[in-house]
């Protein structure tokens, strides 16, 4: 069961949509029309690092309806973040 949790618990901005599947599996949701570029990917990695500071061995999935550039997709995969389209 997926439940929405308060991002402030993990030191993230309040506008961040963070969901939790189970104790160590998180879903970061980005709902926007513009493309996700490398600058956005760096911000996403910083958010994931904050989550992993609080929860050891956490896995994070990025769910988005925006298109993701190939360079960003490759970069996120290298960092262990799966990208899923809504």
Topology:
Layout (H helix, E strand, L loop, with lengths): L2 E3 L11 E6 L2 E6 L7 H17 L4 E6 L5 H9 L3 E4 L1
Parallel strand pairs: 3-4, 4-5
Antiparallel strand pairs: 1-2, 2-3
Q: What is this entry, summarized?
A:
The chain has 86 residues and is of the alpha/beta class. The chain has helices at residues 38-54, 70-78, and strands spanning 3-5, 17-22, 25-30, 59-64, 82-85.
CATH class: Alpha Beta
Order of helices and strands: EEEHEHE
CATH architecture: 3-Layer(aba) Sandwich
Largest sheet: 5 strands, mixed
The tally of beta strands, per DSSP, is 5
Enumerate the spans where pLDDT stays under 50 for 5 or more consecutive residues.
none
The proportion of strand residues reads 25-35%
Structural notes for this entry:
- This protein has helices at residues 38-54, 70-78, and strands at residues 3-5, 17-22, 25-30, 59-64, 82-85.
- With 86 residues, it is of the alpha/beta class.
- It has one domain: 3-Layer(aba) Sandwich (Trna Endonuclease, Chain: A, domain 1).
- Strands 1-2-3-4-5 form a five-stranded mixed β-sheet, with helices on one face.
- The chain is globular and about 30 Å long.
- The mean pLDDT is 96.
């Amino acid at each position: 069961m997926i439940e929405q949790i308060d991002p402030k618990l993990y030191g993230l901005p309040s506008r961040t949509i963070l969901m939790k599947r189970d104790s160590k599996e998180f879903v970061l949701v980005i709902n926007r029309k513009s493309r996700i570029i490398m600058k956005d990917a760096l911000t996403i990695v910083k958010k994931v690092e904050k989550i992993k500071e609080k929860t050891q061995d956490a896995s994070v999935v990025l769910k988005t309806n925006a298109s993701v550039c190939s360079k960003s997709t490759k970069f996120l995969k290298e960092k262990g973040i799966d990208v899923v389209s809504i």
